Task: structure prediction
Amino acid sequence: MAERRNITGSLRFTLTAVYTVVFTLLLVGVSLLFRQTLASNLTQQARDDLDQNWAIVKAYLRIDSDKGENNFHPVWYYDRNDPDESSVVAGVRSVILIADAGGHPMEASANYNALGLDKVSDIRDVLASPQAKWFDKHDAHGSPYLIRASYITAENSDHKYYVAIGLSRADSRKLLNQFTLLILGLIPLVVLTGGVTGWIFAGRALTPVVEIARTAQRISGSNLSLRIPVRGAGDELDRLIKTFNQMIERLEVSFNQARQFSTDVSHELRTPITVVRGQLEVALFTAETVDQYRDAIVNSLADIERLSQIVRALLLLSQAETGQVVLQRQPLDLIEVVENVVDQFQIPAEGADVTLECACNVARCVGDFDRVQIERMLSNLLSNSIKFTPPGGRVKVSLDRFGNEAEIRVADTGEGIPPEHLPHIFDRFYRVRGPGEHASPEKGLGLGLSFVSWIVRAHGGTVQVESEPGKGTTFIVRLPLTGAVPTPIESPAELMKGV
Ligand code: ADP
Result:
């Protein structure tokens, strides 16, 4: 069923949304900061201008009184023929209020009148303070002005007179409004462009992830050979792809092993079942006497015994494969185990006319081992050696110790193993067949060496084989002793590799 795609729930959407929100917040923050800086710079500029105007006021304005009278009034002293001075003074006087302590205006420009005259209480505050007072005023149209209020003292008197000068801030306000409009228009545009770019880039960056998901969906037990191509960018996604491919590879190996295993098992079970069936059918149709029936049943029983052996061995192998066989490790002297097993094989060896020798070249060889499994491993190696050594031959088991490692060699003077078979003899059901020779039940199940390999690996050791056809075979098992770090076994499948 096609998966319904929910865009808002996608990683691409989340990435783009987070990026856009953060980007917008940053942009708004920076714009506000910028606007704030611009506003305070403009205010500072206006204050500087008014301070300069105040210097002009102090230079050209006197509060004089007519002779003999106590009637003070403002007088501007400047050269009226000098256009520069005239324009400077006119500029200052365009927004000015001069008032006495009672708040009566002595000079009020039209502009100041439009702003409304100052209250008496405010005028008295200014006259009482040595500091200039700054405040904002607005005319009837809402146009803003910055006002600097201070006082000057009358000539030859200690009377203080209120002088407020102002500066229109309309231009500053216009500039700020234009800036605000500009950022209000630009921010959505920039955010939109950023969002679309983020969406495209997030989509591109996540393409391999989508690819991985698609491939993963297509992979099933039958097409595990699928791999995602590595892009060669060497980034996190390439590492993800590599890890994913490696995982599929391991799965493929495990699947193949499982498939091979079931093929082998059905193949191995089919032959004895067919034989038993044939024997019973023949007996049913041709046997006449009780002895003939008995013979058929005895033969069938022998084959059924072989079937049970296979089933038992397979059960144990599958238990080992799924990690159900846990080693019962305990301190064990390998000398004792080797000598015991060799003793047990003396009688079969004699029966096969094979000389069996044991040479333990160390005084002590103690390690943490599972006694049952080590005995099984030695038994498998010894029974093979005796089985594949012709009468008159010899089998020698030796034990040595090299540092923290015990070395067990099982060497025989038997038929040997042709080199082309050596890489496979630890595989399940693998048996070496001579030219024209068919698998003969007497020669074994082909599982013995698989067990040997598993047991050795489970103990953290290694097993090797050296063989020369016609001269003999030597199996060399190396096992770490107490204190040695066992070779880590990654997984049950790994444990069974080559078994
Ligand atoms: P089997 O039960 O057939 O012995 P194994 O897994 O123990 O199965 O051995 C696999 C094959 O390796 C044997 O069938 C035999 O051909 C060969 N092999 C094992 N040990 C020896 C040996 N000591 N000398 C010659 N061939 C051997």
